[in-house]
Every structure is written in C-alpha cells, then in structure tokens.
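EI: anyone free to look at a 265-residue chain?
SC: sure, send it
EI:
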Amino acid sequence: MIKRKKSDYIIHSVDHAFDVLEAFRTSEPELGVTQLAKLLNLHKNNVFRILATLENRGYVEQNAKTGNYRLGLKAFEAGQAYLRHTNLLSVAHPAMVTLTGELMENAYLSVLRGDYVFYLDEVIADQKIQVVSRLGTRVSSHCTATGKVFLAFIEKEQCDAILKQLELEKMTPNTITDLSTLQKELASVSETGFAVDREEWTPGLKCVAAPIRDYYGKVQGAISVSGPADRMSDSRIKKEIVPAVQIQAMEASKKLGYLIGKTEE
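SC: here you go
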C-alpha cells in the first residue's frame, strides 16, 4: 500500500483561511475584502465568508469606521502561546546540528550567568582531531567569543557592572587584558553582529559566536562554532564560518519571536 503524502489531506477551505491570516504580515495593518481577494486570487464571497468565520472566533476584527479587517486578539494569544512553549535549548539545538553538519566543527550553546559564560549544550563533529567538550563549563566572559557577544549586546549598565568587577586574567598570550582594548573589541562586535576568539581562551583553539535574541530583542543565548586553529584560518572564518553562524543564530532567534511585527523588506 502506497502511503499518501500529508499534502493530499489538505482541506482547501482551511488552507485559504490561513492564507487570509498570513496576508496581514504586510506593512498595511488593515485590509479590505476586495484587497484580500485580489492579493490571494480568491473570490470575494469566499474571502468574506472566511473573514466572518475568523471574526467570530476572534482571530480578526473589523474596523467599524473603514470596514476593513485587522488581526484580532486571538491571533496575538496564539503567537504568545507558541513563544511560551518554546525554549532556548529546543530552538538552538537544531541550528547547532545544522552548523556541525555544514562545517564539520563543534557547535555550542551558552548563556551568561553573572560575569561568566556557561555552556548548556553542544554538538560534536566527527573529526579525527577533537576539541575538548565544553558542556557544563563556566568561563570568564572576556576571553571567549560567546562572552564577547554577551558583553557587546547586553544593556550598557549591566556590561559596565561586569567589566568593573571582572578580572581580565591572561589565559593565553592572545587574551585581551587591557580594558580599553576590550571595549574597542566589544564595539566592533556590536557593529558586526559576531565575535571571534582568536586563541584567547585556549592555545590552538578558535571560536566564532553570534547572539540568539527573543521577541523583545534581548539576547537569551549565544551560538558558537569552535575548532583547531589550523582548521579555522582567517579566510575560512570570514568566508564560511561567520556567515553560517549568523544565519543559524538568526534562525534560532526567529523561533523565539525575534523580528515578529517588523516589516519584511
């Protein structure tokens, strides 16, 4: 017996209802029946019936003055319910798996706890030369790519408080131990959206990290890729690793609600 595809079971009226809901992603907060019919290539009567159903359930509401429709409270509640049941680990892990598959280097998820970076999750690449596991490790924020990401993107007051009490311990010859130099580095991270650890924590190890943001734009975690310095040349970091890390950090961020409500370019 041939198993049918899930697409064979689609109920077209329900499918059209979601088309109507998704049409409100445009920059126009309100849409009329005629606009929606033209936009979705549907008959006006079908659009009206769909809107009437959605309005009855609270997913759209009609502006009494203009007669146009906009998203209702139920649509907002559905989005909030999704965000409440989505957590950092569940959205970051698939992105880490993708990174490891693409780059064949270890991927990590970390969070900021006080003035330290704590590694919550990792995906290990199948390489002959393995990087030591970071899972459960706590590291000072000044000498890692993930730490620099947090310091660059948290509130200035919080960053200043951390830097004030942070001991800029020299972990390797490359560790930044001068506050002014570190602040310049953080300004660069803030501008580019990523950070690089150039053997600053462990000799022979490099790392690239980018922030994972939530609905409000707040950094909830950092996703990173680490590997031996001889596999992480400056050229590879720039052309291959940085773009991949930033793309996957953004994918995880979107699942936490980041960019919701922003106009699509």
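EI: The longest helix spans residues 234-255.
SC: 👍
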